[in-house]
Amino acid sequence: MTVPGGQTHRLKTLIKKGRSFNFADAGKWTLYFVLIGIIAGLGSIAFHYLTQIGLHYFLDFLAGYRPPAPAGEHHLLTPTATPFNRWMLLFLPALGGVLSGWIVYTFAPEAEGHGTDAAINAYHNEGGFIRGRVPFVKTIASALTLTTGGSGGREGPIAQIGAGFGSFLATKLKLTDRERRIMMAAGVGAGVGSIFRAPLAGALFASEVLYRDPEFESEVIIPAGVSSVVAYCLFCLNFGWGSLFESPDFHFRNPLELGPYIVLAFLLVGLGIFYVKFFYGTIALFKKIKIPNHLKPALGGLLTGIIGFFLPQTLAFGYGFAQKALEDQLTIPFLLFLAIGKVLTTSFSIGSGGSGGVFGPSIVIGGAMGGVVGKTFHHFMPAVVTEPGAFVVVGMAGFFTAVSNTPISTIIFVSEMTNSYHLLLPSLAVCSVSYLAARKWTIFHRQVKSKVDSPAHAGEFFVDILQTIRVRDLMDQVKKVRLIPQDMTFSDFKNYFSRTDQHYFPVMDQDQRLVSIFSINDVRGVLFSQEIEELVVMKDIGTSTIIFATPSEDLNSVMQKFTIRNIDSLPVVADDDHSILIGMLGRREVISFYNQQIQGIKRSHQHSGEPASEIDYGRP
Questions:
Q1: What is the structure's pLDDT at 473?
Q2: Residue 71 gets which letter from DSSP?
Q3: Which of 212, 256, 259, 340 ranks highest by number of CB atoms within 10 Å?
Q4: Mean pLDDT of 334-339
Q5: What is the pLDDT of residue 85?
Q6: Domain interval for residue 541
Q7: How many structural domains does the chain have?
């Protein structure tokens, strides 16, 4: 078929306009995500400087404690000559707790605890909105908590810096809640990906950590990927390229080694359940203590200091000890005390109201327990377990999977952080077992089970479900009604009207074909005009512009007709002849049927566990 020249020109013009619009739209969103990545990257740089300065002047200068750094990081300041003083370690975390607690509870109480959970809650329940002051309060409070010896991770404050800017930018641009959520999640991915030098994992983590089921928020992955790459590049340009840890070139070559790895998985599950239970038990305990909230982190810091007095390796970040475990430089008792002690100090530091993340400590705990299992099996089965350090890598991934329900992103995280990609098979095995065995428990108690349970997707899910249901599925709800002859006088209709509870009245011709319809509101104007009752016939009252539904139509379309025209009932007509009336379908019946379908879907999702609204997330 040929197109006339004028139409061809207009068609090309429209295509060009469409292309330019698409490119402009893509460019606009890319710019937004790049800006989020820049702010998250700068936030990572600033927070890293803050922690280095804090560690230098608190732990080093005051206590003479200089924990080792991971291979990918170096001390930015020259170590002092202060001799090691255990008694300072006893009280330093309490000092950090006092300062952190005062800042948090004075300026932004929602900044307490681990920031990733706050971001998850904002995504599901707050339309992606985060108060502008929260990232700044979180940054300062976390730096004080962690550099005075409190146990926690860096991802919490960095996630909130990126998330906070994404939320701020979306709010200033007056974007929708959905767009604000995406930009907030992109900030989370950028912050986590940059501070741990794992940009791919950061993007995947931001989309996976939102749910307890193995489900990704697909619309988040690409935006978070763009932001994460930008933030990662900025961070590495300032502090150097490379991974956070350096590990030997581990390989998986012996299938018999899967046996010890499965043993490791179940030990990690047990330790993970203990971690979640103890963490939320600590939170519950501190909520019951009758002292001002801003003093509770000081009490938690004192408990942390007591443990640190005997086990200094459990204080602060602990990444350097994970590095030593990778290099097989630590003994089994040291690693065991590191793993158990880190659970306790993290729970006291963060669970009391202190500020910091939970991913970082989980890496150290999992790596230490992996080292214990690897060295033990290497002692008894040296021909099978030839490299105990490999169990450290897999232990990192397996433990965080057990406490976070994020198996895929965690495997990528640990691979990028350790620059070890030859252990994907045992990591996948351990993470799969850990996830399946521990999915009832999670350190992120703001996670929801799936998109079905997320308020963020309530409207979308409503539409998706309605589009899968046809009017024919509700034929038992389609009611037969009295048909009004088109030549019936209004006086005759009044007699019938006084004896019926019908609200909508189809008007039929002599062949029983639908010609119009009217409601009780349409007869009000004639009802009290007795002088014209014998002159008016029902054909004159009804409207011939009939809004109807057919058996093949989906309920989303039907609900739109109900809503747009503000009507409560629709005539259902035959698919092949719209003048043949089948019956009337009410709005109330459609909504009731939809609710039944939702409950059925939720029951099928929850057949293996408790309903999302009743899950206790491992609390005692």
A1: 86
A2: T
A3: 212
A4: 96
A5: 92
A6: 461-598
A7: 3
Residue 421 lies in a domain: yes
Sheet holding 504-508, edge to edge: 484-485, 504-508, 514-519
State the pairing for strand pair 504-508/484-485. parallel
Is there a single domain that holds both residue 401 and residue 498? no
Q: Which residues contact 221 (CB under 8 A, 6 or more apart)?
A: 203, 204, 206, 207
Beta bridge partners of 584: 479, 571
> Within this chain, do residues 472 and 384 fall inside the same structural domain, yes or no?
no
CB of 192 closer than 8 Å to CB of 205: yes
- Which residue has tokens 């300026």? 107
- 206 closest CA partner among 36, 356, 19: 36
CATH number of the CATH domain containing 392: 1.10.3080.10
Task: Name the phi and psi angles at 515, rounded to 5.
Answer: -120, -25
The three-class DSSP label of residue 387 is coil
Asked if 396 contacts 191 with a C-beta cutoff of 8 angstroms, the reply is no
pLDDT over 50 (residue 1): no
**Are residues 169 and 195 located together in one domain of the fold?**
yes
Choose the weakest-confidence range: 328-332, 351-355, 369-373. Answer: 351-355
Are the C-beta atoms of 249 and 376 separated by less than 8 Å?
no
Quick one: three-class SS letters along 426-467?
HHHHHHHHHHHHHCCCCCCCCCECCHHHCHHHHHHHHHHHHH
DSSP 482: P
